[in-house]
From TrEMBL:
<dbReference type="InterPro" id="IPR029052">
    <property type="entry name" value="Metallo-depent_PP-like"/>
</dbReference>
<dbReference type="InterPro" id="IPR052963">
    <property type="entry name" value="Pantetheine_PDE"/>
</dbReference>
<dbReference type="Pfam" id="PF00149">
    <property type="entry name" value="Metallophos"/>
</dbReference>
<feature type="domain" description="Calcineurin-like phosphoesterase">
    <location>
        <begin position="4"/>
        <end position="106"/>
    </location>
</feature>
<dbReference type="GO" id="GO:0016787">
    <property type="term" value="F:hydrolase activity"/>
</dbReference>
<protein>
    <submittedName>
        <fullName>Phosphoesterase domain</fullName>
    </submittedName>
</protein>
<feature type="region of interest" description="Disordered">
    <location>
        <begin position="341"/>
        <end position="362"/>
    </location>
</feature>
<dbReference type="InterPro" id="IPR004843">
    <property type="entry name" value="Calcineurin-like_PHP"/>
</dbReference>
């Protein structure tokens, strides 16, 4: 029996306050009413393998009966420690991480956790083909490979290019093992909570004209991931599939075509101080003593408010409108307009996805 299921993404334990958040989670061992809680960790824990291991151990030590995990883009960044241990590519790093999870009993494959509830971590990576919406009118905005750190710090084998669909397809293939059997085992009345680091749908990111970096969608999601979610959707009754995601650092709770999508990102302390409202979902903030609870008493917990998904509940998406909003226009002019010489390193240092799409509506 499962009591509750919690989700969190983008734990970024390199931030001291985030490491403290992990250590400060309520210890549920011996707590009445917390007999069998499950936690889903949706990637971007750290680019340091040992830090990922330590955080997952800490989650286990907090008394979660099961911890599920998938990696994010940060886990694909190569660092000095990888060099020291002879880890050559992001592929070997992902494989090492999945092996460590196996050793630790952290689950990286779909499984039933009781009372008709499946948890399905879906491994993924971003590719620019995910973005099918028109470009905004901002020729000064640099291409995604110059701005996003992933293109500098991840290192893929020669046969996998991150400029095409290769890496996203390879990462999606990590889900293949046992997939058909898993899908076939889902009964129509079952519930499924799937989760990924990246976005399975373009509607889960604010439109380009509102973003400080309008090409963010090109490094945010995966069509391969969307197909996995669609496959799960076809197996369950309406309302029985929730998908949690991360990466963009926006609180989110939206139902699209009968699937509910949520994001609860721990993100970074500076993001919480600059734009708390776009990060919150329901009661969840970086000061919460719990991750976001999405399942309790045999049902999905619903109704959490989140700024951007509330905005899209009231406003149609209009991607054909390619005119930048004034705040974005101003930011982009200042940063990349004539006479500005934003270098690759300065772009990269300040344009983590979470730092880019800032519009706080008051
Ligand atoms: Fe990410």
């Amino acid at each position: 029996m499962v009591d509750r299921v919690f989700v969190v993404s983008d734990v970024h334990v390199d931030a001291t306050a985030n490491a403290a958040w992990v250590r400060g989670l309520r210890d549920r061992r011996g707590c009445a009413g917390a007999g069998r809680d499950v936690l889903c960790v949706g990637g971007d824990v750290s680019d340091d393998v040992e830090e990922v291991r330590a955080a997952l151990e800490e989650f286990q030590a907090r008394g979660f009966a099961e911890v599920f995990y998938t990696f994010g883009n940060h886990e694909c960044w190569m660092n000095a420690e990888d060099e020291r241990v002879g880890r050559e590519t992001s592929v070997s790093k992902i494989r090492d991480l999945l092996a460590i999870c196996e050793e630790m009993g952290v689950r990286t494959r779909p499984g039933k956790v009781g009372d008709g509830l499946w948890i399905a971590p879906l491994h993924s990576y971003h590719h620019r083909g995910f973005d099918t919406e028109p470009e905004v009118d901002a020729p000064e905005v640099p291409p995604v490979e110059r701005v996003m750190n992933d293109f500098r710090f991840a290192r893929w084998p020669d046969n996998l290019s991150d400029m095409t669909d290769d890496v996203a397809r390879w990462c999606d293939g990590l889900n293949d093992h046992g997939w058909d059997e898993f899908v076939a085992s889902i009964e129509p009345g079952d519930k499924v909570l799937s989760f990924s680091h990246f976005l399975p749908r373009l509607e889960l990111i604010p439109e380009k004209r509102m973003l400080f970096y309008p090409r963010l969608a090109q490094a945010s999601g995966s069509e391969f991931l969307r197909k996995r979610v669609d496959t799960l959707k076809a197996r369950v009754n309406e309302g029985n599939l929730t998908h949690a995601f991360g990466h963009t650092h926006f609180g989110w709770n939206q139902t699209l075509d009968g699937v509910r999508y949520v994001q609860a990102a721990l993100a970074t302390p500076s993001e919480w101080s600059k734009r708390p409202r776009s990060l919150e979902i329901g009661e969840f903030t970086n000061l919460s003593e719990e991750p976001l609870c999405v399942y309790e008493h045999g049902e999905f917990v619903e109704g959490q408010r989140a700024m951007w998904s509330d905005y899209y509940a009231a406003n149609e998406r209009a991607p054909e409108d390619v005119e930048l909003l004034p705040h974005a226009r101003q930011f982009i002019r200042q940063r990349w307009g004539p006479g500005r010489r934003a270098t690759v390193s300065s772009d990269a240092s300040s344009l983590h996805p979470g730092a880019t799409g800032v519009v706080e509506r008051r």
